[in-house]
User: What shape does this take?
Amino acid sequence: MSKTELPPGPRGRFLTGHLREFADTRLEFMTDCARTHGDISTFRIATIRIFLVNHPDLIERVLVTDARRYIKHFGARMYKPVLGNGLVTSEGDFWLRQRRLAQPAFARARLNTYGGQMVELTVRHLRQWQPGQQRNVMAEMSTLTSAIALKTLFGLEATAEREAYTDALREAFSLLSAPLRRVLRWPRWVPTPHNRRLNQAIRRLDELVLGFIDQGRRRAEPGTDLLSTLLHAQDEDGSRMTNAQLRDEAMTLYLAGHETTALTLGWTWYVLAQHPHIEERLVAEWRQVLDGRPPTIEDLPRLRYTEQVVMEAMRLYPPVYLIGREALEETDLGGYRVKRGTTIFLSQWVTHRDPRYFEDPLTFKPERWEPERARLIPKYAYFPFGGGPRICIGNHFAMMEAVLLLATIGQQYRFQLLPDPPVILWPLVTLVPMYGIPVHLERRAGARPYEEVPASFCHSV
Ligand code: HEM
Assistant: This one.
């Protein structure tokens, strides 16, 4: 029998509840809520009732066992103007059909082709760097993963088209992510200056993506890029995606796929710069496995410590730090009644730092991911890619990209953090450093520039 009362939680204001705390200091606020009030706690963002869930078994219930009782929450729906009915924002049978059509593009054999392209684009990117320069390593990672996404998704090289696309996307997203405190927004058809700019950016995006799709359709031979796979994907009944569906999926995959990986890499460099002894162990692995040449996908099984470093960085700085769901029907969770329409928050930030599951939780310890020790961590205490049917479709793509890029870049350069501007956590849709991560570039001792390395390493490009 379910309890009828609400889970415990902090007392909020009469009308706005905890809107202010959530808008201003959400990481600290949610951590506090979970540590003080237990595995299920509750608070209110204005009229929206939230249950914050912080136990691996209950997280599994929401994401996996009871997945069909929930849809994505209001936060995900906010991005529909740009993402349309793509994989991240769609629901039900439509989502399932699209997921099945997209899945072959993420099959192991296909990922292997992308691996070579990732390394080649990174080697090219490094040619713009010089030891002694100061750079924002987060912005660098974002430019690089954007180039990789456009190449692997659309088969596009660095062109003016690519820049126009990324500019329009950035504009649309910054307009959509207007601060949460602005609860009152005009509907998109009201011609406010904000909406006019947003609609213009979306129109520009549509033109560009439909142009990519048109180019893809006109190609005699299907390319190896993901858009080509989607263009030629057929459902069991023989039907294909329409241009409108392709547009939504292309936009979704580009967006979901590049910023998250850039953040993973940016935060990894940030923690590595503060842990020289861990960096030394990484360099030793690269020396032993790669001996100064860029990695290939065949090296991945032996870059074990590199992978553990990435996993540990994503534990402490999860790019997606919050997953939200909304109950479709009345159900129960951890002994509490969840009314239809209740919003459930699962926070990687909160759970990944819980001392019950991670000893010494604030310390960066890649060794905790050694297979013998990792076995002891409850499955849903660590969920950087979500779980269940809506688990990140790009999780293997992302892990491969992060490990390959870390090794390719790390063999050539080390980064020294600069004090100004400071690194400040800014939890938006993803966990962003507010002013980036400023670093000083140093050539790694004994590194030979890749120009001197034989070009044959790129055999799979
Ligand atoms: C380190 C990098 C990444 C992280 C941390 C990440 C994280 C996530 C998470 C947590 C979800 C589940 C959200 C939810 O359940 O509400 C998700 C979904 C998704 N991700 Fe990723 N992601 C990453 C990289 C990628 C890449 C590289 C791609 C594509 C190339 C991608 C495409 C998607 C898509 C399409 C979905 C929606 C899947 C569905 O609902 O069927 N992601 N991602």
Q: What stands out?
A: Residues 72, 87-88, 99, 252-253, 256-257, 260-261, 264, 319-320, 323, 384-386, 390, 392-394, 397-398 surround protoporphyrin IX containing FE (CB under 6 Å).
